[in-house]
Automatic annotation (TrEMBL), chain A:
Protein name: Ectoine/hydroxyectoine ABC transporter permease subunit EhuC
GO function terms (MF aspect): transmembrane transporter activity
GO CC, alphabetical: ATP-binding cassette (ABC) transporter complex
Family statement: Belongs to the binding-protein-dependent transport system permease family.
Compartments (UniProt record): Cell membrane
Transmembrane segments: 5-23, 29-53, 65-86, 195-217
InterPro entries in the cross-refs: AA_ABC_transptr_permease_3TM, ArtM/GltK/GlnP/TcyL/YhdX-like, Ectoine_EhuC, MetI-like, MetI-like_sf
Keyword Cell membrane: yes
Organism: Ornithinibacillus halotolerans
From TrEMBL, chain B:
Organism: Ornithinibacillus halotolerans
UniProt GO cellular component terms: ATP-binding cassette (ABC) transporter complex
Record domain ABC transmembrane type-1: where: 21-212
Database matches in SUPFAM superfamilies: MetI-like
Name of the protein in question: Ectoine/hydroxyectoine ABC transporter permease subunit EhuD
Record bears the keyword Cell membrane: yes
Name of one Pfam family that matches: BPD_transp_1
Protein family: Belongs to the binding-protein-dependent transport system permease family.
Keyword entries, A-Z: Amino-acid transport, Cell membrane, Membrane, Transmembrane, Transmembrane helix, Transport
Residue intervals passing through the bilayer: 20-44, 56-80, 86-108, 165-185, 191-212
Upper taxonomic lineage: Bacteria, Bacillati, Bacillota, Bacilli, Bacillales
Domain of life of the native organism: Bacteria
Length: 232, 237
């Protein structure tokens, strides 16, 4: 029995030594997709969130249309649609996986997060707006100096949660053939099925380690938003 | 730029893809039920006061929640049967129910917990004062007050799960997405096939989201304690 455990231990350590470098080959793709998606995701979120509060009905309804479309369908469908269907629709031969992957993730989560931006701005006390009107601030100054800084604090916890969601979503890009860590893992599994447990366990641990700083960041964001503006 | 859209392809693909709708919706509800039940398991486990176990449970939940469901599905489908001793081969549908069910049960467990935490402390004290047993306290006092306010949140998770279910096509569950892939590969027409899938999702999830939103507003009015107090005050005066 003891011998069995020792034997298993050696097998597992060997497998990890064998699997680890292969998976690391894809780590830069995963990280690139994640960082780009986060940047564009927040960009879309702020643009769409502010546009939905616009006085112009055309801007407002176009943005609502975008948000409802992307919130109403699932990310994997959007990813396939952007990668397989769009080039066919316009008869163009672009084969840019990175663009399709980043666009799908950032448009999808941008739509979700725009609701947070909108909700937080609406949640800022009406008295603040009234006070800034009384102080003769322009509409732009009112948003930039008074409402937005307060709204930003309210957004932080949810934004942290969506960071983790976006990290999880990056695993989907392997489905359109990007060579991220999951892609390399899948190749390893298809050549040697007995390695599957090590491969997928390592992948899960990889993602968890990448998520850990984000989890702490989210908690930090919660703290900041709880503390309020006055004590900050 | 000329647009390359073929309506005949659209109408040809539609009935073919629609055949998968039963599997997709059925799988959504199966996963949801599993998550609803398993969510309670997390609630019970988290109430264990013993520090190391509490810590372990918290971080297990965190681990499941912050790793991609896609890899969890692959783990259950490909890796689980390979583990010596405890491994069993499962059908792809079972794997999908287990994988997505466990993933979302951690979220639903948190929803339950927030509901239980929002029950007034006086209710616990009252049940002690009235000499209720633990079982009675939970079943007759705490849960009936804790769960109904969470129903809109649970509804939201149902819609979120519906949108995650197409992930199961990667391990061979033949829902609408897998059928669209098949159709697209056979006819070299991905465009219409994937558009149909997107439309089906939109048509099903958008109205349900509106419905849940309405329910939420109704529930908020019903369960908002301050509103109730104000209303009753108004009635007295």
């Amino acid at each position: 029995m003891e011998f069995y455990f020792l034997y298993m231990g050696v097998i597992i350590i060997n497998a990890i030594i064998e699997v680890f470098p292969v998976l690391m080959k894809g780590i830069h793709i995963t990280i690139t997709v994640f960082i780009l998606s986060v940047i564009f995701g927040y960009l879309f979120a702020f643009i769409a969130g502010l546009c939905r509060l616009s006085n112009n009905i055309i801007i407002r309804s176009t943005t609502s249309f975008y948000v409802e479309i992307f919130r109403g369908t699932s990310l994997i469908v959007q990813l396939f649609w952007l990668y397989y269907a769009i080039p066919m629709l316009f008869n163009i031969g672009i084969d840019n996986r990175l663009m399709a992957g980043v666009l799908a993730i950032s448009l999808n989560y941008g739509a979700y997060m725009s609701e947070i931006v909108r909700g937080s701005i609406l949640a800022v006390d009406k008295g603040q707006t009234e006070a800034s009107i009384a102080l003769n601030l322009t509409r732009f100054q009112r948003m930039r100096l008074v409402v937005f800084p307060q709204a930003l604090r309210m957004m932080l916890p949810e934004f942290g949660n969506y960071l983790i969601q976006m990290l999880k979503a990056t695993s989907l890009v392997s489905l359109i053939g990007m060579t991220d860590i999951l892609y390399h893992g899948n190749i390893l599994r298809s050549t040697n099925l007995s390695m599957a447990p090590t491969v997928y366990l390592l992948l899960l641990v990889f993602y968890f380690i990448m998520a850990l700083p984000l989890i702490f960041l989210t908690r930090k964001g919660e703290e900041i938003s709880k503390r309020g503006v006055a004590n900050g | 730029m000329n647009i390359n859209w073929k309506w005949d392809m659209f109408f040809d693909a539609f009935p073919f893809i629609l055949k998968g709708i039963g599997v997709t919706i059925g799988l959504t509800f199966a996963c949801f039920l599993f998550a609803l039940v398993f969510g309670f398991v997390w609630v019970i486990l988290r109430r264990i006061k013993f520090k190391p176990i509490n810590w372990l449970v918290t971080w297990t939940m965190e681990f499941i929640r912050s790793t991609p469901p896609l890899i969890q599905l692959f783990f259950i489908y490909y890796a689980w049967p390979m583990i010596p001793g405890i491994g069993v081969t499962l059908s792809s549908i079972t794997c999908a129910i287990l994988g997505l069910g466990i993933h979302f049960s951690t979220y639903i467990g948190e929803v339950y917990r927030s509901g239980i935490d929002s029950v007034d402390k006086g209710q616990w004290e009252a049940s002690v004062a009235l000499n209720y047993s633990t079982r009675q306290t939970w079943l007759k006092i705490i849960l009936p007050q804790a769960i109904p306010p969470t129903i809109p949140m649970l509804g939201n998770y149902l819609i979120i799960m519906f949108k995650e279910v197409p992930l199961a096509s990667t391990i061979g569950v033949v829902g609408i997405l897998a059928l669209a892939e098949t159709y697209g590969a056979e006819h070299y027409r991905n465009l219409e096939a994937y558009t149909i899938v997107a439309l089906i999702f939109l048509v099903l999830s958008y109205p349900s989201a509106i419905l849940i939103n309405k329910l939420e507003r109704k529930m908020n009015r019903r369960f908002d304690k301050n509103a109730v107090m104000q209303e009753s005050k108004g009635a007295v005066i």
